[in-house]
């Protein structure tokens, strides 16, 4: 099975496929660990994982073109391709691209929704919650603190987060140290903290259908 | 910077002081901007002059460099914060001295969305350009917009959204205005990171504004057209 690269590599470079398997998964690097865990747990040897740099999360307008390039560069030689992204802030661009390319993708607005269950997430209607997953807890500085300039200008914090109330940590795994780290991130942002055990949510079902 | 520390603002002549204010805005130095604003007022500058020549002039440079990818959001926020310091001194004086009024704008972030950085920047730059602003804040249902437009006898409605999941709500507002037969009574401007011109057209807005500077120019343009139409009619 694929060796998991570091979180920094998943953020900046992604993960190359092994070149084996009948179905190529093109996924966000933020999901690498979870997708590989599900492949291992279910014995899905027909799935081969290729991750794009997770930092695209911060530039959603670049996701659809990057996915299209990856499908064209890597898709040949596989029976089919499945895109392990939700809409992820692309405003429907990714769905239109996948439809045009004839490849499937995960349903829902973003990973926070499919981890929790798309309908359940929508039903909560949480407007003032800021979400982190396992990966984002570990990569908080790279995805939140530094891009917002809070490392240089911590006084800007309330301009960004003043309208939020709670940091919701959607936990894929049961990891005390990670929970503690998430709690510290909430403190840094001046938000209440809530841990919500989601496991892999609807990701597993989506991969089963890939 | 150490050389900056050596500059005594009150010793600069007007031209140098305005140039220094451009630099200080660019660097987000709120205290210096407030001090320089006071100095220009003491020298007899009209509040409107200080606003347009020094503050808006400086923020225009910041806006251009943001548009061109030279500055990023944190730096723009610091600059905006500095401008806000100057505005806090000028605002009460502007009302007293009869600065020109361009029109009135009701602005707010749409229902389900709590992001207001872009909306606040637009509101501030519109104010700087002489528009009266009624800021509804965040998470606004359609009723808030309609009630404020009528109550305030506004000319312009500005809606903002940061999320792809909330931006469709702008169409709900515009469709409701159409149903009530009031759509054409107002100029409707929309903005926010995930929007584009195509989206603005599709939902029936008058214009999509990609940043605060564009919002100001677009608003001025539409208001001028309206006045021309009224004069012709």
Automatic annotation (TrEMBL), chain A:
Top-level taxon of origin: Bacteria
Residue stretches making up the DUF1638 domain: 51-206
Pfam families tied to this protein: DUF1638
Protein name per the record: DUF1638 domain-containing protein
Natural source organism: Limimaricola pyoseonensis
Lineage: Bacteria, Pseudomonadati, Pseudomonadota, Alphaproteobacteria, Rhodobacterales
UniProtKB/TrEMBL annotation, chain B:
A GO-annotated cellular component: cytosol
Keywords, comma-separated and alphabetical: Cobalt, Metal-binding, Methyltransferase, Transferase
Source organism superkingdom: Bacteria
One annotated GO molecular function: methionine synthase activity
Gene Ontology biological process: homocysteine metabolic process; methylation; tetrahydrofolate metabolic process
InterPro entries: Cbl-bd_cap, Cobalamin-bd, Cobalamin-bd_sf, Met_Synthase/Corrinoid, Meth_synthase_dom
Stretches assigned to the B12-binding N-terminal domain: 8-102
Domain B12-binding: residue ranges: 102-233
Keyword Methyltransferase applies: yes
Name assigned to this protein: 5-methyltetrahydrofolate--homocysteine methyltransferase
The species this protein was found in: Limimaricola pyoseonensis
Lineage, broadest ranks: Bacteria, Pseudomonadati, Pseudomonadota, Alphaproteobacteria, Rhodobacterales
């Amino acid at each position: 099975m694929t060796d998991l690269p570091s979180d920094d590599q998943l953020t900046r470079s992604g993960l190359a496929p092994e070149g084996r398997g009948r179905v190529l998964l093109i996924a966000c690097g933020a999901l690498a660990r979870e997708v590989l865990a599900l492949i291992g747990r279910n014995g899905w040897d027909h799935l081969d994982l290729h991750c794009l740099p997770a930092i695209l999360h911060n530039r959603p307008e670049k996701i659809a073109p990057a996915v299209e390039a990856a499908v064209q560069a890597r898709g040949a030689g596989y029976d089919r391709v499945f895109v392990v992204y939700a809409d992820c802030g692309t405003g429907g661009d990714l769905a239109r691209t996948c439809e045009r390319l004839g490849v499937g993708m995960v349903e829902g607005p973003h990973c926070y929704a499919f981890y929790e269950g798309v309908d359940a997430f929508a039903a909560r209607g949480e407007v003032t919650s800021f979400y982190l997953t396992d990966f984002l807890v570990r990569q908080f500085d790279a995805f939140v603190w530094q891009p917002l300039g809070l490392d240089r200008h911590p006084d800007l914090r309330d301009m960004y987060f003043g309208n939020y109330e709670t940091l919701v940590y959607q936990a894929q795994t049961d990891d005390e140290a990670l929970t503690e780290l998430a709690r510290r991130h909430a403190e840094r942002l001046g938000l209440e903290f809530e841990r919500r055990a989601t496991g892999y949510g609807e990701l597993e079902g989506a991969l089963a259908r890939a | 910077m150490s050389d900056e520390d050596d500059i005594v603002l009150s010793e600069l002549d007007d031209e140098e002081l305005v140039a220094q204010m451009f630099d200080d805005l660019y660097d987000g130095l709120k205290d210096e901007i407030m001090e320089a604003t006071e100095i220009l007022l003491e020298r007899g500058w009209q509040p409107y002059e200080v606003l347009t020549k020094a503050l808006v002039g400086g923020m225009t440079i910041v806006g251009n460099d943001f548009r061109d990818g030279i500055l990023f959001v944190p730096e723009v926020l610091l600059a905006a914060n500095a401008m806000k310091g100057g505005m806090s001194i000028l605002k009460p004086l502007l009302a007293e001295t009869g600065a020109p009024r361009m029109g009135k704008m009701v602005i707010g972030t749409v229902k389900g969305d709590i992001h207001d950085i872009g909306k606040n920047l637009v509101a501030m730059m519109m104010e700087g350009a002489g528009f009266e602003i009624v800021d509804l804040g965040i998470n606004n249902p359609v009723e808030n917009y309609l009630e404020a437009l009528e109550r305030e006898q506004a000319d312009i409605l500005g809606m903002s959204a940061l999320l792809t999941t909330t931006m469709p709500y702008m169409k709900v507002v515009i469709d409701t205005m159409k149903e009530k037969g009031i759509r054409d009574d107002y100029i409707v401007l929309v903005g926010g990171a995930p929007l584009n011109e195509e989206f603005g057209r599709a939902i029936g807005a008058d214009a999509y504004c990609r940043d605060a500077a564009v919002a100001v120019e677009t608003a001025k343009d539409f208001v001028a057209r309206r006045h021309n139409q009224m004069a012709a009619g």
